[in-house]
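[agent] plan:
  1. take the single chain provided in the ticket
  2. run structure prediction with default settings
  3. attach structure tokens to the ticket
  4. add a short note for the reviewer (M.T.)
[agent] executing step 1
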Amino acid sequence: MYDDVAVERLDKICTYRRLGVPLEDIKKLLDAKGTAADLLVARLTALDAEIARCREQQRVIVALLGRARSRALDKDRWVAILRGAGLDEDAMHAWHVEFERTAPEAHQDFLEALGIEPAEIARIRRDSR
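[agent] step 2 finished; step 3 output follows
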């Protein structure tokens, strides 16, 4: 009933919707009024902000409930896991150095996810360069 062009258009619409791209932006993409990269970068930026808000909400809830009720991984638990795996201070530093070298943005995101304060994150990343 539908031609290949219509099916391909619907497939693109479904893909962009799964990514959370607003319909207005999908229309721009399909009408060639914007580049996919520009709109997807904007969506990624919005997701990063949303994740940061969710992390903050998670930290507050964990604080209200107490650590024992949390499934979240914080700095202390992460360090305990690394120590349990046999990593000493030098090995942990090497781990951070490699993380910072190969994926600096992901390193930032990971440290934020552990609930580490921004000043400490800056120090860890600086010392890892």
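[agent] step 4 note for reviewer: The mean pLDDT is 87.
[agent] ticket updated
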